[in-house]
């Protein structure tokens, strides 16, 4: 019952957003605007608020990073290899599709799904490991995908990486992580009106993120490529967190909250960045778009199962 009270209201918020968009009560512009607010204001405020608090003295073990990104690498290679075996080596579009399918199977929906759910499960103990992982997740994953795709295409890898770096430098979440990191290292805490304002924005992050996700999902459809979408969803919701859990809990020694956050972070559904990457390179769009919807629907059961399992172990 406790698990149901934790998970169901969150998915109800997503469903409410989807339902209001599907019935035409809310337009797509509302979802786009709310998503921009979450990405540019609410989540950055929550990050700064969290990182500006005094540290607990916990040292982040290198195993924390190895556990998460090791799991990413394994499932990425598995899914890319599975798709690659059915393709012609000389077909560059197929080569790009294999990379993007692997990327989708290991790219979590972090801002709109991971942040509210992980904070609800782990509370204050999960804030620092969550935002530390959030700080490096997108840069590492996007850089890896760009390198693999551009190398296969014979394109200008340096130019493409520079473009990624420029985009990250303007990313509100990356900027918030830098600001919060500086405040944490210099032991500066927020106070007065600034603290009140940052908290006011940060407190809206979870609900707005889930609601905007629901509104935005209305534009995605379960289209062609359902077989590949199902494989991506299994990789994302089952295999990715499984590999992370094995490494975090059975290979390295780290605080339980860190191991749990890494596992639950990996258990999130396919991130929308995967679909944007597919659109950018015009490869795997149908499969990834379907995987975004399918994995989000199925995740209501898989996330609940992972939370239950983490509570047992």
From TrEMBL:
Family membership: Belongs to the auxin efflux carrier (TC 2.A.69) family.
Primary localization: membrane
Organism listed in the record: Cupriavidus pauculus
One protein family per Pfam: Mem_trans
Protein name: Transporter
Keywords for the protein's UniProt record, in alphabetical order: Cell membrane, Membrane, Transmembrane, Transmembrane helix, Transport
Residues annotated as transmembrane: 6-27, 34-52, 64-85, 97-122, 128-148, 168-187, 193-214, 226-252, 258-279, 286-307
One biological process term in Gene Ontology: transmembrane transport
Species classification: Bacteria, Pseudomonadati, Pseudomonadota, Betaproteobacteria, Burkholderiales
GO CC entries: plasma membrane
Membrane topology: Multi-pass membrane protein
Location(s) in or outside the cell: Cell membrane
Gene3D superfamilies: 1.20.1530.20
Coiled-coil zones: none
């Amino acid at each position: 019952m406790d698990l149901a009270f934790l998970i169901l209201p969150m998915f109800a918020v997503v469903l409410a957003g989807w339902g209001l968009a599907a019935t035409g009560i809310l337009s797509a512009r509302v979802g786009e605007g709310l998503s921009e607010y979450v990405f540019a204001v609410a989540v950055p405020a929550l990050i700064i608020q969290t990182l500006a608090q005094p540290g607990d003295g916990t040292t982040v073990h290198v195993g924390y990073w190895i556990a998460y990104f090791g799991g990413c690498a394994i499932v990425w290679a598995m899914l890319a290899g599975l798709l690659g075996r059915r393709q012609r080596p000389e077909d560059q579009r197929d080569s790009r599709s294999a990379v993007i399918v692997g990327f989708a199977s290991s790219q979590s929906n972090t801002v709109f799904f991971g942040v509210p759910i992980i904070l609800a499960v782990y509370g204050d103990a999960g804030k620092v490991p969550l935002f530390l992982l959030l700080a490096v997740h997108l840069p590492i994953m996007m850089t890896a995908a760009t390198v693999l795709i551009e190398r296969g295409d014979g394109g200008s890898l340096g130019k493409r990486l520079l473009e990624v770096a420029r985009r990250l430098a303007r990313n509100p979440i990356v900027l918030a992580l830098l600001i919060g990191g500086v405040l944490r290292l210099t032991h500066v805490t927020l106070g007065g009106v600034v603290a009140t304002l940052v908290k006011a924005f940060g407190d809206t992050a979870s609900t707005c993120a889930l609601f905007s996700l629901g509104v935005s999902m209305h534009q995605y459809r379960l289209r062609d490529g359902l077989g590949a979408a199902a494989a991506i969803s299994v990789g994302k919701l089952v295999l990715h967190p499984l590999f992370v859990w094995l490494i975090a809990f059975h290979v390295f020694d780290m605080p339980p909250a860190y191991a749990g956050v890494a596992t639950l972070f990996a258990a999130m559904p396919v991130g929308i960045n995967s679909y944007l990457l597919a659109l950018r390179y015009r490869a795997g769009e149908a499969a990834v778009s379907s995987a975004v919807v399918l994995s989000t629907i199925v995740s209501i059961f898989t996330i609940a199962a992972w939370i239950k399992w983490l509570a047992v172990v």
